[in-house]
Amino acid sequence: MAPIPTIDLPASYESLSLTHIKISHSPIGSPTVTPVVVISLNRPENNNAFTPQMADSLTQAFHLFHIDPRIKAVVLTGAGKMFCAGSDLEIGFGDGGGRAVDFRDIGGRVALAIHRCHKPTIVALQGSAVGVGMTMTLPAAIRICHEKGKYGFVFTRRGLTIESCASYFLPRLVGFSRAMHLITTGGVYPPPCRNILAISLPRLSRRRPKFCRLAQDIAEYTSSLASSMSRALMWEGPSSPEEAHLLESRVFHHMVGQPDYKEGVGSFLEKRKPRFKADPRESCPPNFPWWTAANIFLEPSATKTSKL
Which top-level group of life is the source organism from (predicted)? Predict the structure, then answer.
């Protein structure tokens, strides 16, 4: 069996240099990694338009958060007045050359990284967002928006189809009827954007305590293991209530035997803050994942003909 690859975790996420994004601790400047980290899309001069480099940086960051037991919750926001203006159309998407079977959209890579991360993501859309600026937020646990912002899935108005796994996430979040409306019109709407954005604030302050308060509450009072498994049950659940009952029962039975359950009950009875310690990657149920994940990796191709 091949050895399991290891990744060195940073002593500080603020010291990482990643293109087109910025990572900070909460509070900013903490000498050690904090339970809540904040990622900011960092192209304010371009309204944080999405680029391949930004996609690479976000994917790398969420992979680190996934395996880092010090991280409990993630906030994703943007620098400047707009969350994300969609893909940078000056860069474009190529000319459609090459084999379609080998193409992987960059927004989808980010969406999958957020979806697969055991730590919940809160998206603070401090300004408007369109295109991939919306679709990449769909796997997040919570989306908070500014009531004066505008939000939309404008793909059909650019001659494009949806991406970032939106055909999977969007109907599950808002229902097929609303999803069809949003995609067919390609319109831009104020909040609540047909119920995609769970929370709308009259003024989204840039003060860190304002939009990190919810993430801090999650980090302090919820079990990362229980949160991760609960979200997986909803996203990757069975197709019937009977099957859901059987699956939930198996996972629930596993959770009852975990230290986090004993700590949750104990802290409630003792009227104190819980001290959850379970790492989802080490304490997940034996049947996790209970679904078969599609292989998204590219097939290798031969570069030359062998002389053998």
Answer: Eukaryota
pLDDT band at 304, cuts 50/70/90?
low
**pLDDT, tens only, 230-260:** 999 999 988 888 898 999 999 999 999 999 9
- Nearest CA to 87 out of 154, 11, 166, 175 is that of 154
Distance in angstroms (rounded) separating the CA atoms of residues 282 and 263: 17
- Homologous superfamily assigned to 13-218: 2-enoyl-CoA Hydratase; Chain A, domain 1 (3.90.226.10)
pTM: 0.87
Q: Longest C-alpha distance within the chain, in Å? A: 74
In sequence order, the β-bridge partners of residue 39 are 23, 76
Instruction: Please state the CATH superfamily assignment of the domain spanning residues 223-283 in this structure.
Output: Lyase 2-enoyl-coa Hydratase, Chain  A, domain 2 (1.10.12.10)
CA–centroid distance for 225 within its chain: 16
Query: How many helices (H) and strands (E) would you count in the chain?
Result: 10, 9
Q: pLDDT tens for residues 12-41?
A: 999 999 999 999 999 899 999 999 999 999
Provide mean pLDDT across the span 180-203.
Answer: 75
Amino acid at 44: P
Q: Which residue has the tokens 């190529």?
A: 94
Task: Answer whether 28's CB lies under 8 Å from 208's CB.
Answer: yes
